[in-house]
Amino acid sequence: MFLHLNPNSGLPIYRQLLQQLRERIASGQLAEGEKLPSVRDLSKQIKVNMLTVAKAYQILEAEELVESRRGLGTFVAKGKASRSLRKKRDLISEAVEQLIAEAKHLQLSEEELIHLIEQRFRKTEGAKS
Predict the structure, then answer these.
(1) Would you say 14 and 54 are in contact if contact means Cβ atoms under 8 Å apart?
(2) Can you give the pTM of this predicted structure?
């Protein structure tokens, strides 16, 4: 599972992790019923404390996006993966706000930021082909 965490973003790591997992569930990248990595495995993979991963998983469980099955692990909850466009926009808005704040901090103009996003979007679309 590819996750990009930025320790310098000012946003706590657990919130970055939480946001990215929400987005992957909403987009279907993490399918209904799919098993998530264990807390231990994911913490090793992304090089963060196990408590950080556990906190994100607990919040996702409280939001009923995942379910823990004793002795089996944590799974994406059934019926939660597909979401409306409005819900998807709500999920991404926090990441967009963070991106805008960082761009302003770096004194990038709106046009420069939009150009960068368009470039990256086209680059990732090309990689999928």
Answers:
(1) no
(2) 0.67
Mean pLDDT in the chain? 87
Cα angle 124, 97, 120 (rounded to 5 degrees) comes to 15
Is residue 110 pLDDT above 90, yes or no? yes
Structure tokens given for 17: 């992790």
Average pLDDT rounded to a whole number, residues 113-124: 90
pLDDT at residue number 74: 96
* DSSP H/E element including 40: helix 39-46
Domains defined along the chain, listed by start: 10-82 (1.10.10.10), 84-129 (no CATH)
Euclidean distance between CA atoms 106 and 100, whole angstroms: 10
Rounded to whole angstroms, the Cα distance separating 118 from 85 reads 20
Backbone angles phi, psi at 69, to 5 degrees: -115, 115
Q: Which two tokens stand for residue 99?
A: 């991106």
Q: What is the mean pLDDT of residues 62-68?
A: 92
